[in-house]
Amino acid sequence: RAAIGAAAQGAASNRAASLPLAGLRLVDFGSGDGRVVAAAASRGMQAVGYELNPYLVWWSRLRTRKALAAAPAPGSGALLWANAWTAPLRDVDVVTIYGRPGDGVMERAAAKCEAELPPHAAVISHHFDVPGWERLLVQDVEGLKLYDLSLRSRRAGAQTPE
After folding, report:
1. Closest by CA position to 122, among listed 45, 27, 40
2. DSSP element (H, E) containing 143
């Protein structure tokens, strides 16, 4: 039995090691139906979704229950009925947001991310640009925009006269 347990544990750690996102921490602003959190957890990420609508939280928890339970270690997921603006981002690697232009959400999200995320973090915006982050955009695939916050210091440093 000990050998079987050790083999199973080794297989699980090999599977997690083969997942390139394993161990990264993700926060989803406005998690909706929970699919982003479930997908991240299934790839070994530690994901937390924040949603204000209690009915969506209930639905997303029901909808993703099996997927979250089956997440490979170290993957995990939680869907919280909470305001994303209170989410601590200091130790987060990836933030996802489905904001919209014109109501200040994207500007507010950018300010929170710039103030709290570590230098190596990334932000993924679903379909909408993050105002003022044009220089941080590294990829746009069918509307999914990947912003690399590590470019903040490099590009800012390059613009600073010495």
Report:
1. 27
2. none
Sign of CA dihedral 112, 113, 114, 117: positive
CA atoms within 13 A on the CB side of 65: 6
* pLDDT confidence of residue 148: 97
Give 67-102 pLDDT, tens digit per residue. Answer: 999 999 899 999 999 999 999 999 999 999 998 778
Identify how many contiguous H helices and E strands the chain contains and give both numbers: 5, 7
Quote the tokens at residue 104.
């200040």
Q: Are 26 and 47 in contact (CB under 8 A)?
A: yes
DSSP state at residue 75: -
Angle, vertex CA 101, rays to CA 91 and CA 104, nearest 5 = 65
- 8 A C-beta contact, residue 48 and residue 77: yes
